[in-house]
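Task 17 of the worksheet. Students: predict the tertiary structure of the chain below and write it out as C-alpha cells. Keep your answer in the requested format; marks are given for formatting as well as content.
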Amino acid sequence: MNPGSRPFVLSRRWFSVSFAAVTLCCLTARANSQQPEVIGGRDEAVPRPNTPGELHCPFGVQFDTEGRMWVVEYDGGRVLKRIADGTFETVAGASETGYVDGQGAAARFNKLHNLVIAPDGMIYLSEHLNHVIRSLDPKTGVVSTLAGTGEPGYAGDGGSLDQAQFNQPISIALSPNGESLLIADIQNRRVRELNLETRKLRTVAGNGKKGIPQDGSLATEAPLVDPRAVAFDPQGNAYIAERGGHALRIIRDGRIYTLAGTGKAGKQDGPALSATFNGPKHIETGLDGRVYLADDNNDLIRIYDPETEQVSTLNTSPYQLKRPHGVTWYQGDLYLSDSFHHRIIKLAAPSR
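Model answer:
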C-alpha cells in the first residue's frame, strides 16, 4: 500500500461505516438494474455540441434533501432546479454575464463551475471569473456574495470574508458535517477552507508556487500545479484533482501525497501511479470510498479505487461524452454533466 492510501480526516464527525456499507449494497443492487438515460437536455443519438437546448453547458449537478436536482451552467449563466414534470426552472441568473447580487433573474454570474447544498438547504456556488463564492437561498431566490471582493488576489486568511480574495476559485466541496467549504483556488495554486460557522478562511494546501508536491511534504509548504477540483468522502477525507498536473492527490496528517497519475497526459488505466489522465475537472466520492473523476479532455469518467489502488474507465455506453465537467453520486446512481452535449446523464454506479 502506498503511503498516501490512509487519508487525512478533516472532519471530526464520522458516519456509521456499517450503515453505509449496508446502504451501498442495497442501492447498488437496485441501481445495476437500470439503463443509462438522459434526464435533462438533449437526448439525441448524435448530439450537436454547439447547439444548446434546455440546458446550456451544464457543469455542476447536485441534489437537495428533498431529492430535487439542481444544476449550474457555465455558458448559460443560470442556476436551475428540476421540477416534477422533468423540466428545469430557472431559480437565479440569466444568459448575460455580470456580477450582480440579487433575487432570481436579477442576479448575474460569470462562469459558474459547481455547487454544493448544505443540510439547511443553503446553496453555495463557485464562480471563477468573478473570483467569489456566492450563496443562494432556495426559499427566496436571493443570491449573495459569501466571500471574495470580485477582484483576483490572495488575501483574507484568518480575517473577514469581505476582505478575502481568490484567483479563480474553480471548485468547492462541503464537509460531511456541513461546517466548512473546501475551495480549489486554482490560480493561487492553493486549496483553502472556509468555516461556515466561524466565517474564517485558511489555507490547507499549496504555497503559491507551481510544482509537483513531494510525497509526505507539509501540504501548506508544498507547491501545486493547478488544483482544479476538491472532494470529501463520507468520512471527511479530502482529495485534490490537478488539471494540468494530471493527478489525484490527498492530504493526510497535514501532509500531501499523490494517489494516481504520472503527471503526463494520457488515458491509461491500471495501477494508480502508472495511470494517466488528461485534464481532470471534477471529482466525487461514493459511499464505497471510490473516487470518480470527470476526465475532461479524454471525454471519459475515470474511477480510482483506494482498496485496489487501480484506475479504471467507467462504461457510459451507449452514450459518448463530450467534455464532462461534473459527476455526482446520489442514492446508488451516478449523474454526469455531459457539458458540451448540453445534457445530464443518469447511470448506475458500478459494483466492484
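Marker's comment: The chain has one domain: 54-348. The chain has a mean pLDDT of 89.
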